[in-house]
Each structure stands twice: as structure tokens, then as C-alpha cells.
Amino acid sequence: MSRLRLSLWWLLAGLCVAAVLPAQTRLLRSPSVSAKHIAFAYAQNIWVVERAGGAARRLTSFQGETQHPKLSPDGALVAFSAEYGGNTDVYVVPVEGGTPTRLTWHASPDLVQGWTPDGKAVLFSSSRETFGPSAAPKFFTVPVGGGPESYLNIYRGYQGRIAPDGKRIAYRMNNSWDEERRNYRGGQNRPIWIADLKTLDVETPPWTDSKDMEPAWIGDVVYFISDRDGVANIWSYDTKVKKLAQVTDFSDFDVKTLDAGAGVVVFEQAGYINELDAKTGKHRRVPISAAGDFPWMMPGWKDVSARIANLALSPTGRRALVEARGEVFTIPAEKGDVRNLAPSSGSAEKNPAWSPDGKFISYFSDRSGEYKLYIESADGLTPPREITLPNHKQYYTPAWSPDGKRILYTDTDLKLWVLDVASGQAKVVGDDPWMVPQRTMNPVWSPDSKWIAYVRHRNSLYREIVAVNVETGVAKAVTDGMSDALFPAWDASGKYLWFLASTDFGLKSQWLDMTHYPIEPTYGLYFAILAKGEPTPLLPESDEEAGSPAAAPTRPARAAEGAAAEPGAATTPAG
Hints:
The protein is mostly beta strands. The chain has one helix and 45 strands. The protein is 1% helix and 39% strand. The strands form twelve sheets. Strands 1-2-3-5 form a four-stranded antiparallel beta sheet, with no helix packed on it. It starts with a helix and ends in a 46-residue tail after the last strand. Mean pLDDT is 88; it is low at 1-21 and 560-575.
């Protein structure tokens, strides 16, 4: 590993191309709006721009994270959460810029949510009054001029905004394990709650099981994000007439974050900030450019030896094939230089594999926008061949057939593909019908390149070994489904198929395990005899005495007459 570390140390130098500022910067997050400005988070700092767009100004330049900017009702201040003191606390900074003022000092993280309508206090959520691995946050306010925090009389609250009349709050009660999970329909979802801050009476918009987030007010209307139509879009709920309506109808990228003020809604979608007019229902993309001296965009030296994701030896073992930090390298065993086959800082090259003759290397790359298969000469001297794949997925476990004519791979949908190298055509030859979290298909070629063995779940969630013929598509189960089998491996002779199997897997086969004690199955090594009539090499053996015919006695030659017999010589009577 030390040689590898030294060899890879310099390889990414010069790969990062100097960034050219686009007309509109992407990856802008958490917008907030006032009558004159839009504040947002980008590159772990807080920025502000005029409502019409243009070049943004950076308000913070902290090396740690600053997040959740919220403009005050009068537009003079920006409240945000930051780690200046080593902990996530509430800060405010003038919209023109200046030194941030710290407002909270508690050890728990404090996440800014908004302002009180009079602009005198900042609303934030914090888990400071709860305990445990999934501590539930609550709402607090802290005076903008400094002073002790006040608990909002809401038992549990994660995201929320106070209504312009100061009498109600629209909020999301609980957080979730994965905020980015689309179309989750589990128990962590809750409707948007609209609570009277005096009586604590609650009403909710019509809701079934969607993930509803980021409520914000314009007058008596609550705007929020919901994925109830399959994509996270903006919806509204008029608390006066009790009417629910869909406001945006994006079908590609989700709406991620949202806020409202000055009669408009601002939101993040596809990495851009958009402004929605509440009266007309029309929205526009705000043209924003954010330029800065970003150290992470500058060319630099990177030690990628700690970022190795895949490692393989060439057929002769003279070079190693390495994937690290989105690049594909070959490394000599003794003599020569490290070779970068895909020097591109703007794309990710993944899952490299050697051809059996060692002349070519295949890998997946998204340099065209979607992942495609590339086949390149091992010396890297000729441009790679690009092969468009029939579906846009993530791809895994590529392997060349021993004869070099085909490449197998699997995809996100747990389908097993075989690609003909000459024609570039791919077809599905198998799959795993159960989309379980673990990817355990582990396909392997037979020595004659005619069959692929892989792992497939049965309805019992036991796994079985299946062999499929790549020519005919005929699939045969090698194991009987009474054990959990995985990791097939062909014998070099082609007579046997080795695998691991467990016969005590039953208590771990389902997703719900109510026992307190972990039950880990044990696996043993097995093999299957593939041809009918092929004898097993494991028949019991025992050395037994089979017997052999006794040797014929030898008659000694007669001694010369009168000569004495030698001592111990056998004699017979004469005559």
C-alpha cells in the first residue's frame, strides 16, 4: 500500500480544470426572500442577491458550514445556523455584510426556521430539551438583540414558520432518517400541522401518506412541499376556505427547499432558485451567479490511495487495475509508471475490468451525462470505444467472459445483463425479483464462457444458486432452496460449482426480527456436481488388504559333490 500511496499521490494534479463561471450557478440551496433580496446557501456559506438576480454577494466566508439563511421581515438582517464556535448555533448578520452576531450558546444544534412577524426574535428548532439517539426537536425563539431563549408551547417541532398574524404556526412535527428519500410512505411521514399558539387546536390539509415538508405562509395560505403526485412539488392550503391546490407540476427534479415572504415563494429545484408569484401562480428561474475563491475548485495534489473502490490484477499479474476518486489507473508491479486511463475531473469512471488477454480495459463513465460502457486499450494510447447501454441505471460487477467475447454486469434493478463486445448489444439473462438492500447476485462466468452462475432470492427470502445459459437463456437452479446459498465459484475443470450455504438461516430470512439477541447464521463450503454420471470426488476411502498370491519357493542349486553346504542353506534329502 505504501508503493500505491506514493504512486497515486500526484495523479490528480492538473486534472481539475479552472472553472468558468456559468451564466447561472447551480447547487443553490435554502432560499429566503424579502422585498429586495434573496438569501441562499451555496458552497457552505451564506449569499445574498437582488430579487431580479445577477451576481451574488457572499455574506460569510467561514471554512465550516453555515446554513438555513432566513431574511428578517424588514429585510435588514439574515439569520442563519453556523459552526463558528465548534457547535451549530444561531447567528445574525446585516444584509449588507459584517461580523455575525451569535445568539445561542447551547451544546445542542440549533437550526434557524424563520422570524417572529415583528422581526424581534429568531425562530429555531433544537433538541436541547430531549435525550436519546433520536432526540425530538422543539421550537424556541431568541431575541435578535440577545438574551435567553423562550420555549414555544409546541411539544414537538422540526420545521415551521409562524403566521404573519403571529397567532398560528404551520409546522412539520418530526424529522426523518433520510430527507432526500423520494416517495417514502412509512411511519415517519406526517401531515403539515397548523396549530393555534394559544389554544393549541390543530388542523391539517387533506393528507394520506405523502412526505410533506417546509411549510411557509403568505397571508392565510400555507405553501409546502409534497410528493403526493410522485414528484416533490409545491402545494398550497388556504386556511380560510379550506382548499388544497397543487401549485407546480415538475416531473423531472424535486423541489427541495422553500420559503415565502413579500408576497412570493422562493424555492430550489434542479439546483436553481425560482420565484413564484402567489397571485398569478407563475414562477420564474432567478438568474444567479455566485463567484468566489473556492479552494475545492482549484487544481491541487490529491492522495487518492485512501479512496480505492475497486482493485484487480492483470491476467499476468504485471499490473494492477485501480479505481480511485472517479479515475481509473493501472499500476506496474515493478517497472514503469502509473497510468491514468480516464483523466477527467468532470466525470466519474467506475468498475474497471480487464479483458482476459490483458489488451483491453472496460469501465463505466458518466462523461456523456448518462453512464455508458467504455472499452479502452490497456496502454491508453488510443481513444476508448463508447457503448450506449439500453437503460439509464447504475451498473455493477462487470466481468469479461473467459473467451473475451462478452461482458456481464448487473444494474440498480438487480437485472443481469450480457453484452456482446463485437456488436455492443446487451440483453437481460437473469434477475433477482426481490429488491432487498443487499446486492448479493455475484455473477461469475463458467470456464467455457457458456454459463453464468449467480444468486437469486426465492419467495422465502432464502437465496439460491442459479446457472443460466447465455445463448439459450435456459436457467437452472443448482441448489434446492432449503438453505441460504451465495458466492458461487466455478471449478477450473468446469465439473463443479462451489458456493457457501447456511442451513440455519431461517430466523434471519425475514426483514422483521423481534428478538433482542442477534442471530448470525453460519455458512459452510459446498460444491455441486454439474454433469450427470460424474462421480463425486468425496466418496469415503479406506485402505484394505486385498491379498496377493504367495511367491513360488526358490530351489537352491546343488552343492558340488563332497562340498559342504553353506551355513543356513536349506537342504532336501537325496533320492
